[in-house]
Amino acid sequence: MAEAAIELIGINKSFGPVHANRDINLEVARGTIHGIVGENGAGKSTLMSILYGFYQADSGEIKVNGKPASIKTSNDAIAAGIGMVHQHFMLVDNFTVLENVILGAESNALLNSSIAKARSELVRLEREYGLRVNPDALIEELPVGLQQRVEILKALYRGAEILILDEPTGVLTPAEADHLFRILKQLKEQGKTVVLITHKLREIMGITDTVSVMRQGTMVATRETAKTTVEELAELMVGRRVLLRVDKGEAKPGAVKLSVKNLVVKDSRGVTMVDDVSFDVRAGEIVGIAGVAGNGQSELLEAISGIRNAVSGSAMLDGKPIDLTGAADPGELRERGLAHVPEDRHHVGLVLAFEENENSILGYHDDPRYLKGPLLNIDAIVADARDKIEKYDIRPSNPRLKTANFSGGNQQKIVLAREIEQDPGVLIVGQPTRGVDVGAIEFIHKRLIAMRDAGKAVLLVSVELDEIRSLSDRILVMFAGRIVGERGPEAGEGELGLLMAGVEQKEAAE
Amino acid sequence: MSVPYAKLPAWADYGLIPLINLAVAFIVAGLVVLLVGENPFRAAVILVEGAFGRGQGIAFTLFYATTFIFSGLSVAVAFHCGLFNIGGEGQGYIAGLGIAIACLSLDSVLPWYLLFPIAIAAAALFGALWALIPAWLQAKRGSHIVITTIMFNFIAASIMVYMLVDVIKPVGAMAPQTRNFLEGAQLPKLNWLIELFGFAKIRSAPFNISFILALVMAWLVWLLIWRTKLGYEMRTYGFSPKAARYAGISETRIILVTMMISGALSGMMALNPTMGDQHNVALDFVSGAGFVGIAVALMGRSHPVGIVLASILFGMLYQGGAELSFEMPNISRDMIVIIQGLVILFAGALEHMFRPAIQALFASLSPKSVGMAQAGKGA
User: Fold this and answer.
1) Neighbouring C-beta atoms of residue B182, cutoff 10 Å
2) A45 contacts in B (CB within 8 Å)?
3) How many other CB atoms are there within 10 angstroms of residue A492's CB atom?
4) What is the DSSP string of A366-392?
């Protein structure tokens, strides 16, 4: 093995009672791609934040290139040659690529000299790594894949020898992800070191040289990628055997429950996000909508659930019309048997500052079961919440705990329990497993299939292609606001990926 | 990922931190007193003795506190719905008009116990309607409620000047105020309540029955916010308008209803100085109590219990401050305002300044118990 670029020795970090990192030892060899996998809350991000100077470790030692390094701020990290590409880009949208690259690294008060220097530097980086971006383009006009490239350029411009990428493929199409991996391989060939944080095991298998697995704040294993399997990694992550394939029987589609015709939805800026979309969802089937984030799926869900007014189009729920262009209100639709698990559980599906039991009635707080005249029947609400907690194995099992203190997976279970237990005829679900740990994903998938088997209509929107493929009975692909194709669940990833990228748009429309 | 932090036990959150903030405010105020060449310890003694030393002082402290409880509750109700009602001053002032109408027309006919409920309703109605306009503008037109409620304070002030000078003032009278209310519109004093505790006879303090009304309202606000469906909807909207939309809560309705309740509470604060003390409605009778309500609500963490306690503190500053400027000529009335300002600064605006340090202290003292402590119901 080559000399270690990064060495972490006995790192400990606690936040109050939470031991986020416990005696972590990690060695990343120079010139390799090192993957770090783990469930949400396993401590991956904390560890990388310590390495990048956002947090200080309580104890432990960091060595960079064999020399002890004291990293107190991100500037120290940059000086030590460490660069980070964040999951959510840290770019100024209305600046050009060039301006973003020099931001914070300007050499003096006047920009001219910095810009000239950066321009020649970008040309050099392009030549060496094939990182082609127009330096004068505005960030907001670039597709997501290129924005990410700018983040990488920023790190390289600052002289990064070690590059940390946090969940880099979450926002990319399969093709863009492939391109990113080619770039990472090129960086490796040039002697750079890459640390890749992800929860997608197939990416780990495809690109890394070494992989470390974290679970509950500890580093449970480090393997050579070539000598391990997806199954072994999943088991290490969760601590038990996990079913990666979803078991489900044949769908028995019945009558049409939800029907949408020629729906057009604009976002708050007036841009058409959903463009003339029509589809049906039948009882007893799961219809999946695949697509790269930002192609109108969010607006489609919001319109169908009554949160956002559509511009035009019609819809039927159980054979009766619903007016999505105005009158339809989320409360009314809920009463008519349309339940909605929203994409953004933090701001829409839950009120994080509420107690768990208060969230277990959100949207159903008009139900007489929960009321005593004008007063809330708190005993009944808490008892009901306790019921759901037991049924859905929500932890900690305390309905009076603040919702923010639950993990992502358990928060999602709170939402699911609330919506499913109302026994709706139609369930629309957005990103059901985003930020949810592997164990909970399995549970959530089983619940959705149980809904289908109980004869409910389920509309599923997800940017996780694997999820769509394993759950859906029919797959609709959305690109630029339109449905560009319908495929069966047996459709290959490559075929769907091309549709998602809009490549086959012409053929699909014909 | 989210950063977990040590959660403080309720007594530290609601007791220790406000006390530390208050102590720092008084230390800085003490330095100011030192600067003008007076002894800060003696000043503190005079302030506290002036407010609580004699029955007379206590009565005045509670009299001031009564008004602040109403205005503090008003701010808190709006705040739970994510609305910042800066217009309590104007809503209370306009409510004086409702009180004037009720009292001037009925004070010769009805006894106080019949007129009081009518006056309460009139004050609440006028305050609510005055708050309804900015609320409607916010809900339907998106005009920011902070701006409009501030503007409406000025409009209210101008309307009241016009009404008092040109419409309501008795013919031939010099002062811009209504005629004095008759006995039917004079609220009974509660000074005997303080005398019960063994204090000497209180000769003339305006502490009156509206204090009881304030306490009842504090309880009702608690009930509203944490025990009713409406309060649930208000808090949902206050924490997350998107979640409220998702839950089918009408944005327009919740803003209008909340602001009317807030305005009604502000309106009720006008009862205390008019029917309880001056027995007329005079120019500028609110005299800033609406703004003190903002500080009271901030310091009381928008919880009725906290608001009552913070109101008594501000009542103490008003009453003790008056005594202080009387006893120490170097300390002018403005100096008292500085001290009040410091309390608002440390207890309100800088409320969270010492929180991280205290959380760190708690986390290091008992890493297991802290953070596992449950969030108490409500506030």
Assistant:
1) 17
2) 1
3) 10
4) T-GGGEETTEE-HHHHHHHHHHHHHHT
The Cα–Cα gap between A113 and A119 comes to 10
Q: A149: Cβ–Cβ under 8 A, 6 or more apart, which residues?
A: A131, A133, A183
Question: Which 19-48 residues of chain A touch chain B by CB within 8 A?
Answer: 20, 40-41, 45-46
CB B368 within 8 A of CB A16: no
Contacts of B229 in chain A (CB under 8 A): 365-366, 371, 374-376
Q: Are A180 and A169 in contact (CB under 8 A)?
A: yes
Predicted TM-score of the model (pTM)? 0.81
DSSP state of A422: T
Give the gap in angstroms from C-alpha A307 to the nearest C-alpha of chain B: 6
At A310, the amino acid letter reads A
Residue B306: both structure tokens together:
């906290």
CA dist A348 and A358 (Å) reads: 14
CA distance A374 to chain B (A): 6
ipTM: 0.83
What integer pLDDT is reported at residue A1 of this predicted model?
46
Residue A294: DSSP 8-state: T
Q: How far is CA B64 from the centre of its chain?
A: 9
State chain B's mean pLDDT as an integer. 89
d(C-alpha A483, C-alpha A279), whole Å: 9
How many alpha carbons lie under 13 Å from residue A470 in its C-beta half-sphere? 16
Neighbours of B220 (CB within 10 A): 15
Do the beta carbons of residue A256 and residue A303 sit within 8 Å? no
